[in-house]
Design goal:
Blueprint: E1 6-7, E2 10-12, E3 15-17, E4 24-29, E5 34-40, H1 44-62, H2 66-82, H3 84-95, H4 99-120, E6 130-133, E7 136-144, E8 147-151, H5 157-170, E9 174-178, H6 185-200, E10 208-210, H7 215-223, E11 229-233, H8 236-247, E12 252-256, E13 262-265, H9 271-283, E14 295-299, H10 303-316, H11 335-346, E15 353-356, E16 371-374, H12 381-384, E17 391-397, H13 400-408, E18 415-419, H14 423-432, E19 437-440, H15 465-471, E20 473-481
Parallel strand pairs: 1-5, 8-9, 8-11, 9-10, 11-12, 13-14, 13-18, 14-17, 16-17, 18-19
Antiparallel strand pairs: 2-3, 4-5, 6-7, 7-20, 15-16
Bound molecules: ligand LWGJIB7O.
Domain Aldehyde dehydrogenase: 19-478
Family: Belongs to the aldehyde dehydrogenase family.
Protein name: Gamma-aminobutyraldehyde dehydrogenase
């Protein structure tokens, strides 16, 4: 007997719609490996319709007083909170994430972030107005950019969608957002919730549109003539494509493209505490986190003690089904990701040593064991490239300069951490580490008020914070004669 797959649909101008040409893709539950839904594979006609809706809605949304946009975002946050269990179940089915951890670790920050941007809507900043030329007054107007084309990733489908739509809407932009083709379900549910709030408040429905589809759909969005800005969280390859496409008509681009976070552990570190925190920060969400504590650099004098404690922590870390309360993480997101992680381990050089894990778990779904690999060298593939799986690598260093050189010696530059009791060393390292974030004696916490974003090939533009909000605005100088 075949069970009918649930049908997810695009959300354009307040209506749920199939793709104009009826094409679909299957949506798989990674905990079972089985398809459970279909989603539209949107093409040019769908993108055109969504962009037209967002463009038509823009003037009314832009011209609201900020307090009205704040009110809408606060209502959206309340509605998310009221429907949290539905969001959790939807996200968990589509990603295999543990239900309890999604409830505790993802929903509260997401809602807080929407509320943060609701407040930011009323803090449109411009530096001092004044007379910088005799008889003339200058002021700054901070304005929305326009329609934003946004492409979200599959690792935190809900939270990354929040990071995109919340600052954009707060600043007065309208949005066409595309979730990853593997994880569209929660963004489609967002559409229902956000659409409900917009309708209740009498705002145009085209303020928020969801288009499902693949890379080609994303390209059509970014190259479309309507959006003034393209924002993507994804791989470096995807970011280069988006920047290339956007360059054709000089759209503003906002890129968050992953990381390879160094975790620099000095000899004076409290080893048991560091191991406990680092293993959670490395394995949480199956390591599918652009800030994951994935690349440990440990002082040679404590290497053996540290590695044996980390391997023990890995062996004690559980992966498994979403409803198992003891698991730290669920499956990898999709079959390609499982092949990617497996490939890195299969290709390890002879000098590497797998201290824990290094294999798939079970034969259903895409689970992978918590893995620790030691003995690695700076040029090794697994040190230079993002694995995006539950794999922590370990290298050694002999002094601060070598630690800095190894830490910075990759193309990514998103997040990093330093573990030491020596305050001056922590401060020196914070200056020297060439990453958008440096944590000291911790790794992975985020707050809505602080920026998230990288340097080098990790992209440009910030998520979260007043900086992220400003990325979705433009400034205009207005000068008036006093005569
Ligand atoms: N911990 C959230 C990181 C966002 C990107 O993966």
């Amino acid at each position: 007997m075949t069970t009918e797959l649930r049908r997810l649909r695009n959300y354009i101008d307040g209506e749920f719609r199939d793709a104009a040409d009826g094409r679909t893709t299957e949506v798989v539950n990674p905990a079972t490996g089985e398809p459970y839904a279909t989603a539209p594979l949107s093409g040019a006609a769908d993108v055109d319709a969504a962009m037209a809706a967002a463009e038509a809605a823009f003037p009314a949304w832009r011209d609201l007083v900020p307090g009205e946009r704040q009110k809408a975002l606060l209502k959206i946050a309340d509605a998310f909170e009221a429907r949290a269990e539905e969001l959790i179940a939807t996200e968990s089915e589509n990603t295999g994430k543990p239900i309890g951890l999604t409830r505790d670790e993802e929903i509260p920050p997401m809602i807080d972030q929407i509320r943060f941007f609701a407040g930011a809507a009323r803090m449109l900043e411009g530096r001092s107005a004044g007379e910088y030329m005799e008889g003339l007054t200058s002021i700054i107007r901070r304005e929305p950019v326009g329609v934003c084309a946004q492409v979200a990733p599959w690792n935190y489908p809900m939270m990354m969608a929040v990071w995109k739509f919340a600052p954009a809407l707060a600043a007065g932009n309208t949005v066409v957002i595309k979730p990853s083709d593997t994880t569209p379900a929660s963004t489609v549910l967002f559409a229902e919730i956000i659409g409900g709030v917009l309708a209740e408040l009498g705002h145009p429905q085209g303020v928020f549109n969801v288009i499902c589809g693949d890379r080609e759909t994303g390209r059509l969005m970014v190259e479309h003539s309507v959006p003034a800005m393209a924002s993507i969280t994804g791989s470096v390859r995807a970011g280069k494509q988006v920047a290339g496409s956007a360059s054709k008509d000089l759209k503003r681009v906002h890129l968050e493209l992953g990381g390879k976070a160094p975790v620099v552990v000095f000899e004076d570190t409290d080893i048991p505490k560091a191991v406990e925190d680092i293993s959670v920060a490395g394995f949480f969400n199956a390591g599918q986190d652009c800030t994951a504590a994935t690349r440990v650099l440990v002082h040679e004098s404590i290497h053996d003690e540290f590695v044996s404690a980390l391997a023990k922590a890995a062996a004690e870390t559980k992966t498994g089904a979403p409803d198992d309360e003891d698991v730290l993480y669920g499956p990898l997101n999709n079959a390609n990701q499982l092949a990617q992680v497996t490939g890195f381990i299969d290709r390890l050089p002879a000098h590497a040593k797998v201290e824990a894990g290094g294999h798939r778990v079970g034969d259903k779904g895409f689970f992978y064991a918590p893995t620790v690999v030691s003995g690695l060298k700076q040029d090794d593939e697994i040190i230079q490239n993002e694995v995006f799986g539950p794999v922590i690598t370990v290298q050694t260093f002999s002094d601060e300069q070598q630690a800095i050189s190894y830490a910075n010696g990759v193309e990514y530059a998103l997040a990093s951490s330093v573990w030491t009791k020596d305050h001056a060393r922590a401060m020196r390292m914070s200056k020297a580490l060439d990453f958008g974030c440096v944590w000291i004696n911790t790794h992975i916490p985020l707050v809505a008020e602080m920026p998230h974003g990288g340097f080098k090939k990790s992209g440009y533009g910030k998520d979260l914070s007043a900086y992220g909000f400003e990325d979705y605005t433009r400034i205009k100088h207005v000068m008036t004669s006093l005569g």
